[in-house]
UniProtKB/TrEMBL annotation:
The protein's name: non-reducing end alpha-L-arabinofuranosidase
EC number annotated for this UniProt entry: 3.2.1.55
Keywords: Glycoprotein, Hydrolase, Signal
Family, similarity comment: Belongs to the glycosyl hydrolase 51 family.
InterPro entries for this protein: Alpha-L-AF_C (IPR010720), ASD1_cat (IPR055235), Galactose-bd-like_sf (IPR008979), GH (IPR017853), Glyco_hydro_b (IPR013780), Glycosyl_Hydrolase_51 (IPR051563)
Catalysed reactions listed for this entry: Hydrolysis of terminal non-reducing alpha-L-arabinofuranoside residues in alpha-L-arabinosides
BP GO annotations: L-arabinose metabolic process
Length: 691
């Protein structure tokens, strides 16, 4: 933080410029650019949930990320069945180790691993787990190891658990004894003596013979709010610090699946964590240049946990459900309408990639899943699905208010499924707001047709997505200026500036991308009567296991950091205000003229006027802001500034806050604010005052 005492009262912007740009403050001599903020003519209300989060399990965002289970394929249910596991020393001292399914722990957890070792063999007998690109272990940290075991013939009465380092060092060791010939659950806490980003778990059998193991878990005690199945603390804290208005989950294209059988089914992700069936992740082989065949969803982070996370960070939950369509970039598989035969397939208009239709399940099943989800979230304990929520430990309703029908589907197949879906939801839950899809592109014939039809159907929100190069965002700052002021609200559900090209593995989270997003967002804010919600995407990325870039927050097994885009989003979310204030550019020019972008809001709760300014220029720029109609202004304002002379600046694990907001104060005299914007800067000015 920059102390306000470091900046002269009469020229704080110039002093800040000198600090950030390295040049003398007095070098700026150009006449100030005159802006007018109509404080006395407030416009549309800003949605209190305007800026939120989009979560999708891409880039190892869940397993290996936000969900801190350290063991990969803990229940041996994932195919190939021994994924993540290998025998100690290549298995030379094991007669056999293989996945079995006879008399498993439960009907929902049939598979387990059987280990058989012979007496007198040299070395250690057992298995080890690699984790998710290793296991992050912290010195002094406590990790709960739990598993089910059943002893077979022989003398194996227990095992020794060891958390190991890459160089063979033991970070924690604990014996587990008392194995019997019946399945029993065992648990022990291991306390680490060292810190390592890529440790692994070793289970060494004590004795000779046969033993069965299942549901092997190594879970840190340090979780968000100390929950046994809790989330990773540093990642949740980054989310909470943004004070997001909503959390959209679980995606994204994994909602759709490559086929309908691989779609995300929320009912399979609640209840006993050990009984949740894993599913291949839709992103594991999507990009040949980033193939990750070991990418599966354990669903330890399921819908209950998503609702709980939303509550924890103060965000409205926004679940997105499958509308009876597999991803149109993959199979394009369609659920039949009701009991009729399926429509679509390779020759259907707008069907996307070729795919075969399916006859089961019908659309009615998808609709019922949506109705049941509302009951799960909001229903009383006396209702079937409400009772399941209560049984999981949350007696109070989650107060679900919004639901999304489909992710980013397009074409007539989507519209014909959306209509009965929305009708059924509204019939039973008329107060639930529905988010609909305009497809993956922000323009074109299919986009236009979808937008028109959804307006005719009185849709409440239309989800628009745009991934494009940075200059697109600056050039389209006026995108919503000419939208109809009545009709569906816009949900800018996925957007991010691409430094190279959409989907390129060479995209970087540069300042050029982030400042361009900041410029675009002035257009979202100025049109708050049209745009009701917005979220950057994707949210998370593991530095060792990503499929898509750029991303808002990056992490490894121990550390995390926010990209410049994270801080832009945070600055908007923390300064969203309550009402739009009209901003007039010099000579009535459009927002963005000469690469100067501006928006303003009144924050009635704080009693402040908030002005956001983007100077996309390599030169400093003086501005004179007339706060027209403002009364009783404070004598001092507060500024938050992100600026870098190098548009390619990035944050990293080594320099997590290389580019982050810097704070200062500035003097306010009369109703005009004079300020000098640093080169390549995004600035938020707050002035206390009343209309």
């Amino acid at each position: 933080m920059r102390s306000s005492s470091r900046f002269p009262a009469l020229a704080p912007g110039l002093a800040l410029l000198g600090a950030l740009a390295g040049g003398p403050a007095g070098a700026q001599t150009a006449a100030p650019v005159a802006l007018t903020v109509q404080v006395n003519k407030p416009g549309a209300a800003v949605n209190k949930n305007m800026y939120g989060l989009f979560f999708e399990d891409i880039n190892f965002a869940a397993d290996g990320g936000l969900y801190p289970e350290l063991v990969k394929n803990k229940s041996f249910e994932t195919a190939p069945a021994l994924l993540g596991w290998k025998a100690l020393q290549g298995g030379a001292n094991l007669d056999a180790y293989a996945v079995r399914a006879e008399q498993g722990v439960s009907a929902a957890n049939k598979q387990y691993v059987r280990l058989t070792t012979r007496a007198g063999a040299p070395g250690e007998a057992g298995i080890e787990n690699e984790g998710f690109r290793g296991m992050g272990i912290k010195a002094g940290g406590e990790y709960t190891l739990s598993f089910y075991a059943r002893r077979g013939p022989g003398s194996i009465g227990g095992l020794t658990a060891v958390i190991m380092g890459e160089k063979g060092q033991a970070l924690a060791t604990a014996p587990v004894t008392g194995f019997t010939d019946q399945w029993q659950r065992y648990s022990v806490v291991l306390k680490a003596t060292g810190t390592l980003n890529k440790a692994f778990l070793k289970l060494v059998l004590n004795g000779a013979g046969t033993v069965d193991l299942d549901v092997v878990s190594l879970f840190p005690k340090d979780t968000w709010q100390g929950r046994p199945n809790g989330l990773r603390t540093d990642l949740v804290q980054l989310l909470k610090d943004m004070k997001p208005g909503f959390l959209r989950f679980p995606g994204g294209c994994i909602v759709e699946g490559r086929t309908l059988s691989e779609r995300y089914q929320w009912k399979e992700t609640i209840g006993d964590v050990a009984s949740r069936q894993p599913l291949i992740n839709r992103w594991n082989m999507e990009f040949k240049h980033r193939s990750t065949p070991d990418y599966y969803q354990s669903f330890g982070l399921g819908f209950y946990e998503y609702f709980q996370l939303s509550e924890d960070i103060g965000a409205e939950p926004l679940p997105i459900l499958n509308v009876g369509m597999a991803c149109q970039f993959n199979s394009g598989e369609l659920a039949p309408m009701g009991t009729a035969s399926a429509k679509g397939g390779p020759n259907a208009e707008g069907a996307g990639a070729p795919g075969a239709a399916t006859s089961d399940p019908s659309l009615d099943v998808f609709i019922q899943d949506a109705l049941d989800l509302v009951e799960f979230a909001n229903g009383p304990a006396s209702s079937p699905w409400g009772a399941k929520r209560v049984a999981m430990g949350h007696p109070a309703p989650f107060n679900l208010k919004m639901i999304g029908i489909g992710n980013e589907q397009w074409g007539p197949q989507y519209l014909e499924r959306y209509e009965p879906f929305a009708k059924a939801l509204k019939a039973k839950y008329p107060n639930i707001e529905i988010v609909s899809s305009a497809g993956p592109s922000p323009d074109g014939e299919l986009f236009d047709k979808a937008s028109k039809r959804l307006g005719e159907l009185n849709a409440e929100y239309v989800d628009e997505h745009y991934y494009a190069k940075a200059d697109w965002f600056r050039q389209n700052v006026g995108r919503y200026d000419n939208y109809a002021r009545k009709g569906p609200k816009i949900f800018a559900g996925e957007y991010a500036a691409q430094s190279v090209s959409t989907g390129s593995p060479d995209n970087k989270n540069t300042w050029d991308c982030a400042i361009s997003e900041a410029a675009f967002m002035t257009g979202l804010e100025r049109n708050a009567d049209v745009v009701g919600m917005a979220s950057y995407a994707p949210l998370f990325a593991n530095v060792d296991a990503w499929q898509w870039t750029p991303d808002m927050i990056w992490f490894d097994n121990l550390n995390s950091y926010g990209s410049p885009s994270y801080y832009v989003q945070k600055m908007y979310a923390l300064n969203k205000g309550t009402q739009v204030l009209p901003v007039t550019m010099p000579g009535g020019a459009k927002n963005g003229t000469d690469n100067l972008f501006a928006s303003a809001v009144a924050d009635d709760k704080a009693g402040d006027v908030v002005v956001k300014l983007v100077n996309y220029s390599s030169s400093p720029r003086a501005v004179s802001i007339n706060l027209a109609g403002a009364k009783k202004l404070g004598k001092t304002g507060r500024a938050q500034v992100m600026a870098s002379a190098d548009l390619q600046t990035q944050n990293s694990l080594q320099e997590p806050k290389k580019l982050a907001p810097q704070e200062s104060s500035f003097a306010v005299r009369g109703s005009t604010v004079s300020y000098t914007l640093a080169p390549n800067s995004f600035t938020v000015l707050r002035v206390a005052g009343k209309k």
